[in-house]
């Protein structure tokens, strides 16, 4: 047991290491960032939601920085696009932190977080399950890209177009800015990195080549999560360094094992299993917002 | 800084009833706490507050009441309501003053020791200390007041004991022959780390005859105290430091992964 100085509660180091290791393992196995599993897992452990969200962001910063080091060596980062996405992300996360504080004061933060997680986990879970099952039945090729990319999207028609030599694009700056803004706001409110929304949007909406997508999204995630840490630390003082250190340790070790194990396993089965897991977790949030509990009264925001 | 000010204001607010009781309780009540400063380090898992005292009456007549309070703070109580099939927190009722921690220990039921008026005046139960701020929507403030006490009780922040401690539970009031008494309160790990006040009262025939007040503080020590000080007094630089720490951890992970 160790006492967390900011969360002001004792936690079992072994338990947090196991949970963050498991989340890291899954993220290494499937190749997702894992913030959207880590933050609800911390809340299930009893960490107050504001601390879980703000501290989770620091772990995401660590993971994305370690990822970006690898991607830079492969020259797989479109810095110009990354800066544009980050500009939107900076504005988005600032708005997100502001909204977070407002909702906390209104006492509706727990409802909004539960609803967002319900939609997110159920949506991603069902997609993963469907994709995994389709591949297992042999209806689709065992590759990630199933949808056909349209030749021209809205990004090519809007004004303020700009050249992105690394991606070989000439598109409007508005979609990357808006996309960055939305991901930044979600990151601040939910404690996620947002890569699993950002990557498909970059492929299908911006039509970026797949080899630069991962590195560029990591760059945006790094900038936004670092900013969320500093903003939350200044505005709500909910960043717990001790908890962050345990999460980073568990997450890094878990991700290493996950990545090695993932190389020897069939991807579609893992995806289907993770899909089931996420849908099950979303049911918990559905339960929270629809089934009346025995105690109808709540204190403060309900999460503190 | 703001937090210090709030604590000071809360202590001033608490000093109200204390000033009144000195005129009532004429005799000095000798009392002390086992630890005037509770240390919080990385192995902190809650604590116990122990109050000792001696009934000033020569024949040890009268009833003993010991109250341990955390500073008052405002709190909102809401009721879950169904809106479009979803449960939303509605009908907020705000209490401008409610004790953040409250434990009352006595050797008999409070209602048999003194009158409801004096229980209210000396704030001997948490419901008596909670001040309503806004009007209650469905005109039943007692339900909200009861909910506040029930919820805080479930969190271990409001406690009451009328029996001496048992082998399983160290909390309770023990009265020894000769007028010596000892009150033990379990301070759970989720209790706020602030300034507490322990009050010991002696009642006889329903009237207060003696009382004593002892402040109890906390000291965050070691790395625990250092992190907390940084996070609250230099929150921006603390945030920057956490980010640099994260980048360092990420760099180390990438470095080790490449070698492996």
Q: What does this 3D model show about the protein?
A:
The complex is a heterodimer of chains A (304) and B (260). By secondary structure, chain A is mainly alpha-helical. Chain A contains 10 helices and 5 strands; from the N terminus they run E-E-H-H-H-H-H-E-E-H-H-H-H-H-E. A two-stranded antiparallel sheet of chain A has the order 1-2. The radius of gyration of chain A is 19 Å and the shape is globular. About 2% of the residues of chain A have low confidence. Chain B is of the alpha+beta class. Chain B has 2 domains: 218 residues, no CATH class; 40 residues, no CATH class. Chain B has 7 helices and 14 strands. Classes of the chains: A mainly alpha (304), B alpha+beta (260). The interface between A and B is large, with 55 and 57 residues.
Q: Percent range for helical residues of chain A?
A: 55-70%
Outline the low-pLDDT stretches of chain B. Answer: 8-24
| Poorly predicted sequence stretches spanning 5 or more consecutive residues of chain A | 142-146
General shape of chain A: globular
What profile does the largest beta sheet of chain A have?
2 strands, antiparallel
Total number of strands of chain B = 14
As a percent range, the share of helical residues of chain B equals 25-40%
- The structural class of chain A is mainly alpha
Principal-axis shape of chain B: globular
Helix and strand string of chain A, N-terminal first?
EEHHHHHEEHHHHHE
Sheet of most strands of chain B: 7 strands, mixed
- Counting H and I runs of at least 4 residues, what is the number of helices of chain A? 10
N- to C-terminal distance of chain A? 21 Å
Largest interface: A-B, 55 and 57 residues
Number of discrete helical segments of chain B: 7
Strand content of chain A: 5-15%
Please tell me the overall pLDDT of chain B.
83
Order of helices and strands of chain B: HEEEEEEEEHHHEHEEEEEHH
What class do helices, strands and sheet pairing of chain B give? alpha+beta
Number of strands of chain A: 5
**Strand content of the residues of chain B, in percent?**
35-45%
